[in-house]
Amino acid sequence: MKTNYHTHTMRCNHARGEDREYVESAIEKGMEELGFADHSPYIFSDGHHSGFRMTTDAYAGYVESLLSLREEFGDRIRLYIGVEMEYYRDDFEATFAFLKQQPIDYLILGQHFVDSEPGKLYNGGASDDEERLVGYVDRVIEAMHLGVYSYVAHPDIINFTGSEEKYRSEIRRLCKAAVETETPLEINLLGIRDGRHYPNPIFWEEAGKLGCHVILGCDAHGSKTVSDDASAAIAEEMIKKYGLVKEEYLRLKLK
Question: What are phi and psi of 85, to 5 degrees?
């Protein structure tokens, strides 16, 4: 792997290791570009605090650390500063404005819940609720049309167990929007190496029919997985099988 733009840090409370370790591991593996996209702080109007993302107080230190590493290792690897961020209609603008107060290169969309988090079902949780499926696809499409997300992380995270026909129909809507907005969809390597419900073959079959562009994302939660050649090889077979178009380098969309 030459690049990976989906890298977490210990600030999200479920990753391990120092920032420097991730960079050193990427250099050791011969990578050209490494992007950090830890779970974004989110400013919820109801005061909710999420336990799986960095806090607003930690964000400045995150940026400061990565800027320092970029300066130190800039002659050996290109480093980018990003976040993985949901699109929640009511609270997006305030959070986006907060993020842009610090240097930031890109956002990736990781829609872990449909509209918000308190009391809601995680999108990876199995459900045959068609309304939830439609809501997920609606939010991802709205987010892509904002023009600020560089790609969609694990777009097949929604774990729908109902009608296959309905699932295919909704996924076609999502994939058509990805083509229209020129937004790559991520084949998530964490899903491969952990044996999760994604990558979903049905999703990628539909994506291939529409000529979707894809990018590989390690979703690294430890320094050893900033590059994952074994999972990438499986993803490459998927790309060939479904006729997907691979992008190696990230096109930054942040406005």
Answer: -140, 130
List phi, psi (to 5°) of 170: -70, -40
53, with CB counted inside 10 A (0-12, 13-18, 19+), is buried
Amino acid (one-letter) located at 183? T
Tell me the whole-structure pTM to 2 decimals: 0.97
DSSP string, 153-192: SSTT---B-S-HHHHHHHHHHHHHHHHHHT--EEEEHHHH
Say which amino acid occupies 101.
Answer: Q
**pLDDT, tens digit, for every residue of 167-190?**
999 999 999 999 999 999 999 999
Q: Are 212 and 242 in contact (CB under 8 A)?
A: no
The pLDDT tens digits for 234-243 are 999 999 999 9
At 209, list the tokens: 């029919």
Query: Within 10 A of 104 (CB to CB), how many other CB atoms are there?
Result: 19
Q: Among 7, 18, 22, which residue's Cα sits nearest to residue 82?
A: 7
DSSP 128: -
CA neighbor of 59 nearest in space, from 98, 111, 17, 19: 98
Contact 37, 5 (CB under 8 A): yes
Asked if residues 225 and 21 have their Cβ atoms less than 8 Å apart, the reply is no
Residue 149's region, left for phi above 0, alpha for psi from -120 to 50, else beta, is beta
